[in-house]
Backbone:
């Protein structure tokens, strides 16, 4: 009975690890279209943009958005330099046109080490648990062996 429980627990752990790996590496949110700076500002000034999400990244703004006529899962992506000229131009154009939703994400101050540890620690814990279960299995088999 104990062996059945252990084997089911083992397969459950393997399933969870596999599921975690698939979810981590499954990034199917590819942009529908990549726009240059000029193309982005042209479409913005023409009033074709309905949704914007602005994220500062190092010395540029990564802008994701939806154009008029796009479906819910379609969007574009553009990179704009982090300068006052571009910010003023974007702010002025956004005020002129009716955009349904604008999201501005503040700059992420998380270090690379924080990301590294938060993504690897769950795998390390699962690996250590696997080794402990394996070690206990070997010790129990040796103890149950007739002398």
Residues:
């Amino acid at each position: 009975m104990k062996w059945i429980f252990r084997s089911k627990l083992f397969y459950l752990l393997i399933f969870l690890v596999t599921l975690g790996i698939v979810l981590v590496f499954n990034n199917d949110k590819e942009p529908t279209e990549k726009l240059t700076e000029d193309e982005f500002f042209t479409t913005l000034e023409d009033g074709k943009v309905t949704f914007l999400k602005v994220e500062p990244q190092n010395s540029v703004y990564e802008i994701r958005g939806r154009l008029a006529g796009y479906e819910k899962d379609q969007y574009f992506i553009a990179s704009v330099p982090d300068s006052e000229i571009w910010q003023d131009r974007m702010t002025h154009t956004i005020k002129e046109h009716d955009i349904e939703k604008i999201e501005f994400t503040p700059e992420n101050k998380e270090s690379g080490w924080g990301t590294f540890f938060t993504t690897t620690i769950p795998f390390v814990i699962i690996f250590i648990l696997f080794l402990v279960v394996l070690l206990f299995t070997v010790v129990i088999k040796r103890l149950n062996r007739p002398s």
Q: What stands out?
A: The helical segments are 2-25, 37-45, 84-96, 112-144. The longest helix spans residues 112-144. The beta strands are 33-35, 49-57, 60-67, 76-81, 101-104. The radius of gyration is 26 Å.
